[in-house]
């Protein structure tokens, strides 16, 4: 644009305005990182302060060869993958259902969004006790009503139970994003397709689903960011157990740090978690970067 | 387009199906609501009692046993203050990138987002040690700092994508007319960017209110938030579901009701402007 200006735009002002945000975030990233790297190569047990000194990569070796480690990586991936898959598939289905007008749409919307505002600790306790308790829980009574043996969810299917809780929390979010997206669809195009006798399956395949692509990317991105280190749901319900059955990487590091008081090993684990996050971030940034470059 | 007559078989089927899905998903919360007004015996009755005379006993007892108001106050202070500080830091940055485009903006945005991807647990040991050394463990201030920083990337992103929708020409015109930066920000940007600021603030309030990881690890009886209070009810011994439900209800009610009123704004903001 060639428009007369009083003075050439100065880069000083935007830089000044950016500085507080960039500087605080940089500190927030670099200080813990440097400290973590330092802790990870020394012996640092909070219960044995007299033992110290450089240990090289011993902490890493200990963390990675811990039998819980592989389990926790697998659990992290299963948890993340399942929750994303469930919320996207069910979310799209519900969004398609409530996209067309029906009686009481406003109230349905409010009911549907509610779980999103429930804090994770309440979510976890609610499901652990009132829903999943093997004797008094609602699910146990439903099972008993149909003559089946009630399941002891948190003991027999711990990871699945956590997946249910987290999906319940994030489904509303996915649903509403998809619904917002559906409402911006070209109505005329839809009408035309219907006039031409396109079946609902065809409309779905060629019109609805392609339109939702972008919002699926947004949902996956945000859920990845928030769910990579799920903690509260595990902490308040299964405590990572039984054994390591529902321990994810975040919880394993927590166990090392605050239950075993081994800050050295926990720091080594933390660096591993950072690595894992970065792999996810690179994958994500490619995807989102493409999507946001309008 | 003219509105077609609404009542068709498809309309009826949709209504029934949508209500069934919504009630099913809302059921756990509805159950929590009911249980909070039961006695402990009614709460674990088999089969469950649907009709009972409600009692407020549990709410009294929660307040007496664990000083609900103290934790609620901590929740209010930490979430409101961290949101305000966050907005004050994020808004100038978002303004700079949206209206004074630089070559590195996209890198900065991506870098900010990548700090959010770092699992909080990765910073647990250092932050815990720092908080301990500076005697901030179990204080409101520690949580305010941590909430602000962990929400900052999301705030910059949301504000940036909403500011980008504002036509640059309006701000440039104000600048041409000799408006100072302060005038430009308060008289032009603030009214036009109100929607974005509101939805960003709302989301951060919700996120901070519900934040559990740092609250559980950095605070206890003194600086703890409602998330900490609720976690203390998870002790395995004894079935005190009615009291647990009452405490839970008191912890989530403010933010859920708040969320109901702001849901449209909130969801719009959370899509980073990528979904219209």
Could you describe the 3D structure shown?
- The complex is a heterodimer of chains A (294) and B (276).
- Chain A is an all-alpha fold and 294 residues long.
- Helix content of chain A is 72%, strand content 0%.
- Chain A has a domain at 71-225: Orthogonal Bundle (MetI-like fold).
- In chain A, α2 packs across α13, α3 runs parallel beside α8 and α10 runs antiparallel to α13 (263-292).
- The longest helix of chain A is centred in the N-terminal third of the chain and has 33 residues, at 67-99.
- The mean pLDDT of chain A is 84.
- With 276 residues, chain B is an all-alpha fold.
- The chains are: A mainly alpha (294), B mainly alpha (276).
- Chains A and B meet through α1, α3, α4, α5 and α8 of A and α1, α4, α5, α6 and α7 of B.
List low-confidence stretches of chain A: none
The overall pLDDT of chain A, averaged over residues, is: 84
- Count of DSSP H/I helices of chain A: 13
Strand content of chain A: under 5%
Biggest β-sheet of chain B: count, sense, barrel?
A: none
Largest sheet of chain A: none
Question: In percent, how much strand structure appears in the residues of chain B?
Answer: under 5%
Q: How many strand elements of chain A? A: 0
Task: Report the structural category of chain A.
Answer: mainly alpha
CATH topology of the largest domain in chain B: MetI-like fold
The CATH class of the domain at 71-225 in chain A is Mainly Alpha
Order of helices and strands of chain B: HHHHHHHHHHHH
Order of helices and strands of chain A: HHHHHHHHHHHHH
What would the keywords be for this entry?
heterodimer; A: 294 residues; mainly alpha; MetI-like fold; 0% strand; globular; B: 276 residues; 2 domains; 73% helix
